């Protein structure tokens, strides 16, 4: 019986050491998927949505103004530390009238026409949530990624 009390006391002490004042765990639970782990290690520098291209080859950060129908795309390396200049990306947006394609415009283009930041506007970008794809070439490799736009209802912006 003494050993049972000792085990119970040790267990209670261990559990108390692993919780905060409110009775909750102090450590963050591990990510449930590789995508969650990736989101935990990277934060979008401009507050947008991150899209991974390839296996950490590059990232797109999409800042979408769904009310104004505008978007800004930042092209960044796999670690989100350095911008990457690319040729103009093409965006296809699904609208009630079918797919609509448009090319983004460079912000501060280099003499060769490449840039690391691109802007565009289209009536199809007013949709919330939105549905589309973006195509671009990064370091000689072509990529196509879904624009994983999420609904902004209830987000307060």
Nutshell version of this structure?
Strands 1-2-3-7-6 form a 5-stranded antiparallel sheet, with no helix packed on it. It has a 4-stranded antiparallel sheet with strand order 5-4-8-9, with no helix packed on it. It has 157 residues and is of the alpha+beta class.
Q: H/E order of the elements? A: HHEEEEEEEEE
Total strands: the figure is: 9
Whole-number count of domains? 1
Radius of gyration: 23 Å
Oligomer: single chain
Q: Tell me, rounded to a whole number, the average pLDDT.
A: 77
Which CATH class?
A: Mainly Beta
What strand order characterises the main sheet?
1-2-3-7-6
Total helices: the number is 2
Give the helix level as a range of percent: 10-25%
If classified by CATH, what would the architecture be? Sandwich
User: Which structural class do you get from the secondary structure elements?
Assistant: alpha+beta
Sheet with the most strands, sense and barrel status: 5 strands, antiparallel
């Amino acid at each position: 019986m003494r050993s049972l009390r000792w085990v119970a006391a040790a267990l209670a002490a261990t559990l108390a050491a692993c919780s905060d004042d409110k009775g909750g765990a102090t450590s963050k639970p591990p990510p449930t998927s590789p995508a969650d782990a990736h989101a935990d290690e990277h934060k979008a520098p401009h507050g947008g949505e991150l899209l991974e291209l390839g296996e950490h080859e590059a990232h797109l950060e999409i800042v979408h103004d769904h009310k104004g129908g505008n978007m800004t795309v930042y092209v960044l390396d796999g670690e989100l530390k350095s911008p990457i200049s690319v040729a103009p990306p093409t965006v296809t947006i699904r609208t009630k009238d079918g797919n609509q394609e448009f090319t983004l415009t460079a912000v501060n283009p280099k003499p060769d026409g490449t840039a690391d930041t691109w802007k565009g506007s289209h009536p199809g970008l007013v949709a919330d949530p939105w549905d589309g794809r973006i195509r671009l070439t990064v370091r000689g490799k072509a990529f196509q990624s879904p624009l994983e736009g999420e609904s902004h209802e209830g987000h307060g912006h």
